[in-house]
């Protein structure tokens, strides 16, 4: 039976804006209050999805969330009509209000952790939505993310869905951004690598000093248990705390893996040589390619600015691997030189394709942030909600939908416009028809 890895990208929502919400994510802080283009952001994302579909990849889409999140604002005591809730919150608590307007669910690498059926004890694909406790605006996502995942992967014979971990920072979980699966083939049992930032229940252990560690070891261990993974097929690696303090807020900013390739910066991991030794020892297969980028080749700052490691590494139909990189990598001389040399070396990576995802990059989200990977068999592929898969028709329909409902520009001051809430809800109601999701949003209950 054929095995492959699908990418499910987050569709950018109608309220995409730069609110400087993510302390520790340098791009988010640097671009706070810049004006955004929700329409361009969504179309950039769709263009990348279509490019991968045209490369023969299985490409899906995960719907955005209802923003402004009126229900969350009411839970905080803002009351009256929806318009009044918007006006009251925007006036009395602008930072909280802006957090309730974020389109951050677009970064579906943070939507969940996914364990393919070749790894799990019950032979199903397991999903655990990330609780994203460290950032308030992201902590609003897991409930609806769970509903969207269950409407996308509905067939209980093939897909198992867990509740997100407890909403407490001891179990801070940022999903697939801190999870990499190494395997000799997508359909064979893989080594699932969980990267965490701190030990929540043992403060004697190393931890970053300046920026928060958003993922805890205990959260990663809980997900591995829930997914029924065997200890021999799991490795826990601590992120280098010094790098978190330089702005590496998720592991997918400094490392990325695909099948038998781990592409990472030499400073990525704490006690790196022990971590790599354990990965080598546990990897099932013989030709593991560890592509370690040295600081003198690409500095940590260049890696963070260009998102060299927030690239997607995909396996094409002919077996070659390709890197999907943001154009920011092309614009950085050290990084573009590195990539040009890389494809000429003797590694499985033979091609680099650049994509403009600048609207997302300005909030610290690159190509890999925008996608959730799901390795699957043909039968599991057939069991997915087919309306969520990108083909020529669905691409056209979604682009037209964006053209009809999205604003060309948006500024933080526009977020309390009652018309924007109406536009967003109208758009999402139509989207749930387009993607055959059913009523997944609070406003539809
Ligand atoms: N690396 C991965 N997998 N995901 C990137 C997430 C970026 C996101 N930015 C934001 O949420 C900024 C929102 C704002 O400031 O408006 C975050 O920090 O959680």
TrEMBL record:
Signal peptide start and end residues: none
NCBIfam families according to UniProt: arg_catab_astB, PRK13281.1
Main function: Catalyzes the hydrolysis of N(2)-succinylarginine into N(2)-succinylornithine, ammonia and CO(2).
Alphabetical list of SUPFAM superfamilies matching this protein: Pentein
Location of the active site: 174, 250, 369
Protein name as it appears in the record: N-succinylarginine dihydrolase
Family statement: Belongs to the succinylarginine dihydrolase family.
InterPro entries: AstB_sf (IPR037031), SuccinylArg_d-Hdrlase_AstB (IPR007079)
Organism: Paraglaciecola psychrophila 170
Catalysed reactions listed for this entry: N(2)-succinyl-L-arginine + 2 H2O + 2 H(+) = N(2)-succinyl-L-ornithine + 2 NH4(+) + CO2
One Pfam assignment: AstB
EC numbers on record: 3.5.3.23
The organism's place on the tree of life at top rank: Bacteria
Swiss-Prot/TrEMBL keywords: Arginine metabolism, Hydrolase
Keyword Glycoprotein appears in the UniProt entry: no
Gene Ontology molecular functions: N-succinylarginine dihydrolase activity
Pathway: Amino-acid degradation; L-arginine degradation via AST pathway; L-glutamate and succinate from L-arginine: step 2/5
Transmembrane segments: none
Complex formation: Homodimer.
GO terms for biological process, alphabetical: L-arginine catabolic process to L-glutamate; L-arginine catabolic process to succinate
Amino-acid positions noted as binding substrate in the UniProt annotation, renumbered to this chain: 19-28, 110, 137-138, 214, 252, 363
